[in-house]
Design goal:
Layout: E1 22-28, E2 38-43, E3 48-51, H1 56-78, H2 88-94
Antiparallel strand pairs: 1-2, 2-3
Length: about 100
């Protein structure tokens, strides 16, 4: 027990977590100083939702988030620093 208080989940949420509101997740457990092993989802509004890591729906949601992060990373690496989208005006002028 140190001077820094950690924010640990004490119980799991019983509600279904919609995938369109979640932006990331982390795992908590004894290695992070928390008694309860849990998946902590962060929503787009920066709310925290605790869920059971044994729940199949939660595992699927974690996999989908991992895939999304990989896709976004590949997109960023594929674009050159100067690559930008054309404005509507530029698109019209080309036609």
């Amino acid at each position: 027990i140190g001077s820094s208080a950690s924010d640990c989940c004490l119980k799991y949420s019983q509600r279904t977590i919609p995938s369109n509101v979640v932006k990331s997740y982390s795992i908590q457990g004894p290695e992070t100083g928390c008694l309860l092993k849990a998946v902590v989802f962060t929503t787009k509004k920066n709310k925290k939702i605790c869920a059971s890591p044994n729940d199949l729906a939660i595992q699927k949601l974690m996999q989908n988030l991992d895939k999304k992060v990989r896709r976004d990373k590949e997109k960023k690496e594929g674009q050159s620093p100067r690559a930008r989208r054309r404005s509507k005006r530029q698109k019209r002028q080309r036609i």
